[in-house]
Amino acid sequence: MPELTFRDANFSDVDALVGLIESAYRGDASRAGWTTEADLLAGQRTDPEGVREVITAPGSRLLVAEAETHPGAERPGEIVACCQLQKREAYVYFGMFSVSPQLQGAGVGKAVMAEAERIAREWGAEEIRMTVIRQREDLIAFYERRGFGRTGRFEPFPYGDERFGRPLRDDLEFAELAKPL
Hints:
single chain, seven-stranded mixed β-sheet, 27% helix, alpha+beta
């Protein structure tokens, strides 16, 4: 695993973050990793406006992980992973979690999750929660191995809002997962 440096995202990171998030989840580039949603959704996963909204939202941080060098690096200090953390009452929402497909399985995601949980505890949260497309059983199993559990709550997929992609199925929904801190 490459040596990682963590920091908050800023507006100069927006294009790199959109590229990272898209490469982790959509299109042919995402098939290099195991987090692809390309068989469930076409189109975009996010856009510059969505990333800027996370950066500026009250109680929100967009955490980035940079690596000086790693296999496939295009430049030193490249952003290789990110996640959104947002304070909500007694828990922190964990979202927009993305790891470069070339580094998936190398421990980067686990390191980002550990840093996110550290920050959530620092904020005084009792729990960290996320939503995952219910049909992504492999991804849910990954989170379960890291201490998350299914809450039994579901949210509808935003059909008709192409900012989140074009569904290739008509049965998509989000499952909520939670982990006590």
